[in-house]
Each structure stands twice: as structure tokens, then as C-alpha cells.
Write a structure and sequence with these properties.
Length: about 375
């Protein structure tokens, strides 16, 4: 009887030990905070997509190095490729849902962000976009959709104000590639130009993936506009159009938008890009926070940050700050914490509005001596 009692006690102790071990593993699993990223990692937009991924990864590294977030043993990133394709973006969103991420930094193309965000919204998962500027991104009433970059309905008027007030432009020719972002922005520029008294000679289109732009450029040359506005989805295609425009002898002022603003534009187009203008969000690259980010980015990648790297860094940082402040990943509580944030990021001062936007302040940059140089501030209306 004594032996049976001892055996029973031993078995009970073993059972409790095993249960405890099981609980420990589950507890450890719960302590890992996974942050998703979603962007084009392959294809023609991969440069911008990897900039976004790396920006978010560096934010996670910085938080981990600073001691992490109480309640979590570590923070990790899980990255998915959208290829700037709406269907693939939805598939990427579903993969991240299966990974149980509470937040996603991305995407790049507005045409990917809009459908992916609707899929994520069904599971109350945050999406913080560092790059999607189409107004519809934050106008659909999605509670957990946030935007760290600016909006096209702010970018277009800023570009047109520069055209008229600084360059004295009277006629423009506009070309886009029919994507949600590019065409939407181009239509905004056309409307703002007409309202400002600038004549739109023509608004034409090319297709994604085109490499020969001779047909549309022949029209541009014949129209002889004061300014040729290039609204394409990435810098590589923008560079190709710039090279071909120069070879065709088009002498118009060349102007692109924030998707064309990328070191790759100058790397590919070289001297043909000299004198070109691009609009992009105002980032003070002499600010201490940007310099800290720059040092981290170079140490990790060996490269200069791309156009959206700092916005991705700030997007991930903002979410992690909100989780820390809320003391939980509960979506409603984190949203409240996000809306209370007001901090100096690598890209700008981050303060989200109720609709998820964070404000816009566009700068016109000019390619001078192989570099993008700040040229005109849309807020002050003055040159730098």
C-alpha cells in the first residue's frame, strides 16, 4: 500500500512537471512578437520593396537592442512578397494572418495595399503603409489602417504650385502607367494644373513592363510642352523614359513623383537625369534621428537608404512604441496608443490623425551633380 502511495505521488509529480514544461513552451511562444512586412521583393519594384523590408527590420533591431518590450522575449519580422500584384498581395496578407502577426508594415503599391488591408482588417490586424499615397488608402473607414507617408491629393497641388510659381510653366504633357497610384496622381496633377491655368496638352498612358516608349515620346516631342510630367510606378521605368526622352531630343522640363525619386533613377539614367525634378516627402537628412537611422541602415545593408526606408522604419517604430505604451497587443488599446503618439521619427514628426493619416509636406528635389538636392519647400513656397 505504501509503495502504491509513493508511486501515485511520483506519477502526480511527473504529470505536474510535464504540464509545467508544456506551459513554459507555450508561454515562450506567446512571448515572441512577430511583425509582418509586405512589399514587392521580386520583379521591377524590388528595390523599393526591399527598402521597406529593411527599414522595418532595422526598427525591430533597434527596439530589441534597447531591451525589447516588456512581456515579450523578442521581436521578429516576417516578410512576404506582393510583387505589386493585387492578388499576390491578398495571398501575402493571408500568409501573415496564419503567422499570427498583429501588425503589417506595407505595402508599396496602392493597388496592393488597398485589397490586402481589407483582408487584414477582417482579423483586426494593423497595416501601416510607408509608401501607398493614393487617398483611398485611408478613406475606407478601416479602423486599423495607418499611413506614415503623404497623400497624392497633397502631392499633386504641391507639384503644380511649383510648376507655376517657380518654373513659370504654361503647358504640360502627362504620362502614367495606368496603376492605381500612378494614374490617380496623374489625374490629380491634371486637375490641379487646369485649375491653376496651366494647359494640359495631353494625358497619355503606357503599360507596366513596357521598355520602348518611342510612341508616346513622339507625341510629347510634337506637343512641345514646357514640362513633361512622368508618373510611373518605380524609378527604373522612370529612368528608362528619361533616357529615351533625352535621346529623342525632348527639351521640356522633366518632373517625376515620389515613386520615381530613388537613387536607382540616377544610377540608371546617369547624366540624362541631371536637372530633373521630383516631388517627395520632406525629410531632414541633417536631423539627428535621420543620421542615427542612416548609420544603422548602412551598417546592415551597406547601401544608402531608398526612398521609403525611413518611412518603413518609422511605421514599425510607431507600432512597437504603441504596444509598449498599451502594455498589450490588443488592437483597440494599441490603436488608442498610436493616436496619442507624437514623436520625432527618422522621416518626420509622427502624429497620426483619427483617419490614420500622418500629414504631408512635400519637397521638390532636383538632380544636381548626380544627387537629389532639396530645391523647393511646398509649405514655405520658397527655395532651399
Amino acid at each position: 500500500m505504501k509503495r502504491l502511495l509513493v508511486l501515485a505521488v511520483a506519477l502526480l509529480a511527473l504529470g505536474l512537471l510535464l504540464a509545467g514544461c508544456g506551459g513554459s513552451k507555450e508561454e515562450k511562444a506567446e512571448k515572441v512578437l512577430k511583425i509582418g512586412t509586405m512589399s514587392p521583393l521580386t520583379g521591377p519594384y524590388a528595390a523599393d520593396g526591399n527598402d521597406i523590408r529593411q527599414g522595418a527590420e532595422i526598427a525591430v533591431e533597434v527596439v530589441n537592442e534597447a531591451g525589447g518590450i516588456p512581456g515579450f522575449s523578442k521581436i521578429e519580422t516576417v516578410s512576404e512578397d506582393t510583387a505589386c500584384d493585387p492578388k499576390q498581395a491578398v495571398a501575402a496578407a493571408n500568409k501573415l494572418i496564419n503567422e499570427k502577426v498583429p501588425a503589417v508594415v506595407g505595402a508599396y503599391c496602392s493597388s496592393s495595399t488597398i485589397p490586402a488591408s481589407e483582408t487584414l482588417a477582417e482579423e483586426n490586424i494593423f497595416m501601416l503603409t510607408p509608401a501607398s499615397t493614393n487617398p483611398k488608402v485611408t478613406e475606407r473607414g478601416l479602423k486599423y489602417m495607418f499611413r506614415t507617408c503623404g497623400r497624392d491629393d497633397h502631392q499633386a497641388p504641391a507639384a503644380v504650385k511649383f510648376m507655376k510659381d517657380v518654373e513659370g510653366v504654361k503647358t504640360i504633357f502627362i504620362v502614367d502607367d495606368k496603376t492605381t497610384y500612378s494614374q490617380g496622381l496623374a489625374e490629380g496633377v491634371a486637375a490641379a494644373a487646369e485649375a491653376a491655368g496651366i494647359k494640359v496638352l495631353e494625358h497619355d498612358h503606357v503599360n507596366q513592363g513596357d521598355k520602348d516608349y518611342s510612341a508616346v515620346l513622339t507625341k510629347v516631342k510634337a506637343a512641345n510642352p514646357d514640362l513633361f510630367y512622368i508618373s510611373l510606378q518605380n524609378s527604373a521605368t522612370g529612368a528608362l523614359m528619361v533616357i529615351q526622352a533625352k535621346r529623342m531630343g525632348i527639351n521640356a522640363i522633366l518632373m517625376g513623383q515620389d515613386a520615381v525619386y530613388h537613387p536607382k533613377l540616377i544610377e540608371i539614367a546617369k547624366g540624362d537625369a541631371e536637372g530633373m525634378f521630383c516631388t517627395f516627402g520632406a525629410i531632414d537628412k541633417d536631423a539627428p534621428k535621420y543620421k542615427e537611422f542612416l548609420a544603422k541602415y548602412k551598417a546592415k545593408t551597406g547601401n544608402e537608404p531608398g526612398a521609403y526606408s525611413a518611412y518603413a522604419f518609422d511605421s514599425a517604430t510607431a507600432y512597437l512604441m504603441a504596444v509598449k505604451d498599451a502594455g498589450t497587443t490588443d488592437p483597440a488599446k494599441v490603436r488608442d496608443a498610436l493616436l496619442k503618439l507624437d514623436f520625432t521619427g527618422a522621416s518626420k514628426q509622427i502624429k497620426y490623425q483619427e483617419n490614420g493619416d500622418s500629414g504631408s509636406n512635400y519637397t521638390v528635389y532636383k538632380v544636381q551633380d548626380g544627387k537629389f538636392v532639396p530645391y523647393w519647400n511646398s509649405l514655405t513656397g520658397k527655395k532651399y
